[in-house]
Amino acid sequence: MSWGSEDIAGGLSRDDVENVPGAVWALAERGYSVLCFSFERIHGGREIMTTIVSGYSTLHGALRAAERRWLRHLDAALCAKQLSADQWTMLSNLSTEAGVTMSELASRSQLPPSSATRHADYLAERGLIFRVAAEEDRRRILIGLSNLGADLVAAVRTEEIRAEQVLQARMGVRRYGELMRLLDLVAASPE
To answer: Could you tell me which residues are beta bridge partners of residue 48?
Structure first.
C-alpha cells in the first residue's frame, strides 16, 4: 500500500508508524500478528510499508506456521478428547509396552521438563498414562500409555492419518515424500 494519504495495514496511516513500537502495538490491538515490517521505495519513488502479517520470513517462522496450520486439522479430534496439542504430542510418543523417563518424554515431545511434568499429571489424573518404578532402579519413574490412553491415541491417530492422506493427495505422492525427507533433514541437522 502506498504511503500517501492512504491508510496502510490495519487502517494505520504513515503518521501512525513513525513510532515503530507504537505502530506494532496499534496493529496488535487490531488483531494483526505483525512479525516485522520494513520500508521500501518502489517505482516512482513512493514508499511502501512491507508487512509480514501472519507470515514468516525465517525457517523458524515457516515451521511454526506450518505446525499451527497442521494442528487445525486435529482440532476437532483433540477438543473432543479434551487434549491440547502438547498433550497429544506426549501421548503419541508413548507406548503400552515400555515406559520412558519424564526427561526422555519431554525430549521426545520437545517440551520443557516443567511443562511435560504438568501435562503428565493431567494425563495421569485422566487415567491415560501409567507411572511405575523402573525394575533396575526403583527411584526412576517410567511413564507409558494405559489401555485407555492407547484407545484414545488410536482414535486421534485415525484423524491424523486421514488429514495426512488429504494433504498427500493435494500435494502428490512425490512432493509429499520430498517434504517428509526435507523435514527429516532439518530435524537431523547438527546444532
So the answer is: 2, 40
Give the pLDDT band of residue 191 (cuts 50, 70, 90). low
DSSP β-bridge partners for residue 90: none
Whole-number Å distance between alpha carbons of 157 and 88: 10
Task: Give 123-181 pLDDT, tens digit per residue.
Answer: 999 999 998 887 888 888 889 999 999 999 999 999 999 999 999 999 999 999 999 99
Q: What are the distances in angstroms from CA 99 to CA 127, 135, 177?
A: 15, 11, 31
DSSP the chain: -BSSSS-BGGGB-GGGGSSHHHHHHHHHHTT--EEEEEEEE-TTS-EEEEEEES--SSHHHHHHHHHHHHHHTTHHHHHHTT--HHHHHHHHT--SS--B-HHHHHHHHT--HHHHHHHHHHHHHTTSEEEEE-SS-TTSEEEEE-HHHHHHHHHHHHHHHHHHHHHHHHH-HHHHHHHHHHHHHHHHS--
Residue with the three cell numbers 486421514: 162
- Cell numbers 478428547 correspond to 81
For the stretch 90-123, pLDDT in tens is: 999 998 887 888 899 999 888 999 999 999 999 9
Nearest to 84 by CA among 117, 114, 123: 123
